[in-house]
Write a structure and sequence with these properties.
Distance between the termini of chain B: 19 Å
CATH topology of chain A: MetI-like fold
Largest interface: A-B, 45 and 50 residues
Structural class of chain A: mainly alpha
Shape of chain B: globular
Oligomer: heterodimer
CATH class of the largest domain in chain B: Mainly Alpha
Number of domains of chain B: 2
Radius of gyration of chain B: 24 Å
CATH superfamily of the largest domain in chain B: MetI-like
Order of helices and strands of chain B: HHHHHHHHHHHHH
Number of helices of chain A: 11
Low-confidence stretches of chain B: none
CATH class of chain A: Mainly Alpha
Mean pLDDT of chain B: 80
Strand content of chain A: under 5%
Distance between the termini of chain A: 36 Å
CATH architecture of the largest domain in chain B: Orthogonal Bundle
CATH superfamily of chain A: MetI-like
Low-confidence stretches of chain A: 271-276
Mean pLDDT of chain A: 82
Structural class of chain B: mainly alpha
Number of domains of chain A: 1
Number of strands of chain B: 0
Helix content of chain B: over 70%
Strand content of chain B: under 5%
Chain lengths: 276, 318
């Protein structure tokens, strides 16, 4: 009840954004229940029109478009979440250590991060995927490594401001352990900017995976994925059919929704966010 | 003045250093090629001898540092080696495509930069009005759209439904300029829509930031018109961050063309890169990546230097 009340208090754009995210999560989790057919089964002729049997028609191989769209939510969003999560684990822990330890550790890691950030990420990802081949674990790892740089910077900057404060010093002096200080004193105070950054990173990674899949280098067929679905069915656009745009719209709507929520989070915690 | 030159020199040295490290990374990627991948490139029927010959062609059989130095020398002198797929000189493949990509990027920049400046200034002038909110909503949405979505919407509306523009931008060197501009208008518009949002938001933010300062208050109190306050009082001090953002977005433009080129089948460097990646044509991928990374680092360097030159406070750190 309390949760519901506080939901009503937030601005409309954030409310809409949160609702959209909830719907996507619901679809992603219950994909096998909702989808009328399987994501990989060939059911009819290629490029069938919209009909009662196939609500959104069939794709270039005759698979049900709607089912692939629904399963795509699971695959595309799931991989993006995994990549961002890994990026936060790597970037967050190194950034936190850099802020606390300082000195040589900080200098070396920061220089490495500078260099990685100087490489255009799409080019770097293409290069790695050429050599290692495309598979989902490689994809997640490459994106996490490319993206943990920004997480590192923002965590380090935010934690730096907290580490020097008196209450952290007090906790240290009264003999609290290293991890206790991180968990109880520092983390709660940098949560707001990190949460907003998580949203922004998610949008970025999500669009990045979509771009890679669109180029045929992301999630591999027959797994349903929104980026490759656009690419595979793009010829239909030349006949004025909007079906191939639906997966792209699905990507766009989710990113807009997340951006709305992030905008609200940043607004609420403003002052803390400009340090990066 | 001497101080300024020193700082600029430092930044250039740092840029060169980054370029060097990036070249090391790009060159050493081949080291990661496991044996079974060379087999995958050559096909199932490859004998151990052909694999060995292939590795010799890539030069993997020789010591790494010698190969790196040769590759670096080749990149600097324009001899980038041969493509694995069709044995052609990479410099032949790259030349025309690089100029096509730069043409597209330049065209998009020529539309995007003035447009975003004007929109940003107007949004700052009419801040917190319906116009400002509308522009804000529009930019927030266009940031969230994948490039290919924007591209296909434009194709659907302007090429397929309306039939005004060609949906595929096949340009060749024998076209005259106006024809070339006409054919690249749709990809340029796509890129414009993608980068305008960010540049415009930063322009607006940079000016609004300044509007809170005392000298602007003074100008306003003595009765200067709002448009004059923004153009003559605020803008000169906002150039630093604005130019910085423009350079960063140009860097993005040059790399972001990859997807747009694929959508519009535009014969640029990005298309070559993607084709070579799917063919596993390692030397071409290396050469293209190096060029992209070089341009990207160069533009970032320009952004860095501009922000130092326009903000003297950065000359005296701490």
């Amino acid at each position: 009840m309390n949760l519901f009340k506080s939901f009503l208090l937030i601005p409309f754009s954030a409310k809409a954004g949160l609702s959209v995210i909830m719907i996507y999560l619901f679809v992603a989790i219950f994909a096998p229940v909702i989808a009328p057919y399987s994501e990989t089964e060939v059911l009819g002729a290629a490029y069938e029109m919209w009909s009662d049997k196939h609500l959104l028609g069939t794709d270039s191989l005759g698979r049900d478009m709607l089912s692939r769209l629904i399963f795509g939510a699971r695959n595309t969003v799931g991989i993006a979440l995994a990549a961002v999560g890994l990026a936060f684990i790597i970037g967050g822990s190194t950034g936190m250590l850099a802020a606390i330890l300082g000195g040589w550790y900080d200098i070396i890691i920061s220089r490495v991060v500078d260099v990685v950030m100087a490489i255009p990420s799409l080019v770097f990802a293409l290069l790695i995927l050429t050599v290692l081949g495309t598979s989902i674990p490689v994809l997640i790892l490459v994106i996490a490594v490319l993206d943990c740089t920004r997480v590192y910077r923002i965590t380090r900057a935010a934690a730096m401001n907290i580490v020097v404060l008196e209450y952290v010093e007090a906790a240290r002096l009264r003999g609290e352990g290293f991890w206790w200080v991180i968990r109880k004193e520092i983390l709660p105070n940098i949560m707001a900017p990190l949460l907003a950054e998580f949203g922004l990173r998610f949008c970025f990674v999500f669009l990045f995976i979509a771009a890679l899949s669109f180029l045929g280098l992301g999630i591999q067929p027959p797994t349903a994925d929104w980026g490759s679905m656009v690419k595979d069915n793009a010829t239909l656009i030349n006949y004025g059919d909007i079906t191939p745009l639906l997966p792209a719209a699905a990507i766009a709507i989710l990113t807009v929704a997340v951006n709305f929520v992030v905008d609200w989070l940043l607004h609420r915690s403003s002052g803390l966010v400009d340090i990066a | 003045m001497l101080n300024l030159l020193k700082v600029i020199g430092q930044r250039i040295a740092l840029g060169l250093m980054t370029l060097f490290v990036v070249s090391l990374i790009i060159a050493s990627i081949v080291e990661l090629l496991p044996g079974d991948i060379t087999q995958a490139i050559l096909g199932q029927s490859a004998t151990p001898e052909t694999v060995a010959a292939f590795r010799a062609e890539l030069g993997i059989d020789r010591p790494a540092h010698i190969r790196y130095l040769e590759w670096l020398k080749g990149m600097a002198t324009g001899d980038m080696g041969k493509s694995l797929a069709n044995k052609r000189e990479i410099s032949d493949l790259v030349g025309a495509r690089l100029s096509n990509t730069l043409f597209l990027g330049g065209f998009a920049a020529a539309i995007a930069v003035p447009l975003s400046l004007i929109l940003g200034l107007l949004a700052a002038l009419y801040r917190n009005t319906i116009f400002d909110r509308g522009v804000n909503l529009f930019t927030l949405t266009s940031i969230s759209f994948p490039e290919f979505f924007v591209a296909y919407i434009l194709i659907l509306l302007l090429a397929v439904k309306a039939g005004w523009f060609p949906g595929i931008s096949n340009v060749s060197t024998d076209l005259n300029l106006s024809e070339k501009l006409f054919r690249t208008l749709l990809p340029a518009m796509t890129l414009t829509l993608v980068v305008v949002a960010h540049m415009m938001r930063m322009t607006r933010a940079a000016i609004i930031n300044l509007l809170a300062s005392d000298y602007i208050e003074m100008a306003r109190l003595k009765g200067v018109r709002p448009i004059r306050v923004i153009l003559y009082h605020a803008l000169p001090n906002a150039w630093g961050p604005i130019v910085n953002v423009i350079a960063l977005n140009l860097a993005y433009l040059v790399v972001g063309v990859v997807i747009v080129e694929v959508v519009f089948v535009y014969p640029g460097l990005g298309q070559l890169l993607v084709d070579s990646v799917s063919k596993r044509d390692v030397p071409v991928v290396q050469a293209c990546s190096m060029i992209f990374a070089g341009v990207y680092i160069l533009l970032n360097l320009v952004a860095d230097i501009v922000s130092v030159v326009t903000n003297p406070r950065l000359l005296h750190p701490r």
